[in-house]
Amino acid sequence: MLRTTDYGLIMKIALIGYGKMGQMVEQAALREGIEVVAVLDPVAGSRGELKDADVCIAFTEPNAAIDNIKAAGDARIAMVVGTTGWYDRLDEARALVEASGIGFVYGSNFSVGVNLMFKIAGYAAGLFSHFPSHDPFIEEAHHKFKKDAPSGTALSLKKLVEAEYDRDIPTSSTRAGYIPGRHSVGFDSEADTLTINHTARSRAGFAEGALLAARWIVGRKGFFEFSEIIEEHLRRAP
């Protein structure tokens, strides 16, 4: 039986990648009554078939992203990709999605909080760009296992701020310990500093956002960014 939500219909999901994020998505799905019919992971082991799902959610190594998109397209399965570090191949991914006719969502961060931070940071940059006394900067920190640096989220923030300043914005990265994720956008002057911070306490927010995207993309076709789903939600808000 289809499970109806505000964002579409979803029956069954497949997980591509069964590391910490894949396991977190599975736990969140089970809490919501969503059936996980397949897990595909060359290291942790696989079960089930991709073709039995309505939508797949991928959190993998960056170099596997394009092959995973090809697999979803071949199976005609809608797809959500939470992997970052592969955006130099976005045009190739878009072509694969359009050729297969599937629905596809990607995003540098699937946390609702981070996506609202994008909007706040962009607005703040627009204000501060009128005051040369304040210099913008971006800082991010993640666990030592994260491969890409700066993070996809930091690059998204950098793009937003640079759109207002039309120059390179200094961006720093830290990889240490077990930090789930921390991002800051700051505006510093001789007199004061204003900083916008987001700290992930766990990966649960990313998993919930990925499921939000999965519910939304079922029944749709095309190439979308997660921020578009957030924008639609804000437009629909009373």
Polypeptide structure, described:
With 238 residues, the protein is an alpha/beta fold. It folds into 2 domains: 3-110 and 203-236, Rossmann fold; 112-199, 2-Layer Sandwich (Dihydrodipicolinate Reductase, domain 2), CATH 3.30.360.10. The protein contains 7 helices and 12 strands. The strands form 3 sheets. The protein has a 6-stranded parallel β-sheet with strand order 4-3-5-6-7-12, sandwiched between helices. Strands 9-8-10-11 form a 4-stranded mixed β-sheet, covered by helices on one side. A two-stranded antiparallel sheet has the order 1-2. α1 (20-31) crosses α6, α2 packs parallel to α3 (90-100) and α4 packs parallel to α5. Residues 1-8 have low confidence and may be disordered.
Annotation keywords:
238 residues; alpha/beta; Rossmann fold; Dihydrodipicolinate Reductase, domain 2; six-stranded parallel beta sheet; four-stranded mixed beta sheet; 7 helices; 12 strands; 38% helix; disordered N terminus
What's the quick description here?
With about 240 residues, this protein is of the alpha/beta class. About 40% of the residues lie in helices and about 25% in strands. It has two domains: about 5-110 and about 205-235, 3-Layer(aba) Sandwich (Rossmann fold); about 110-200, Dihydrodipicolinate Reductase, domain 2 (2-Layer Sandwich).
Identify the CATH class of the largest domain.
Alpha Beta
Q: End-to-end distance, in Å? A: 30 Å
Shape: globular
Determine Rg (CA atoms, Å): 18 Å
Helix percent band: 25-40%
Structural class, from helix and strand content? alpha/beta
Supply the CATH architecture of the largest domain: 3-Layer(aba) Sandwich
- Domains counted in the coordinates: how many? 2
CATH superfamily of the largest domain: NAD(P)-binding Rossmann-like Domain
| Regions with little confidence, pLDDT below 50 for 5+ residues | 1-8
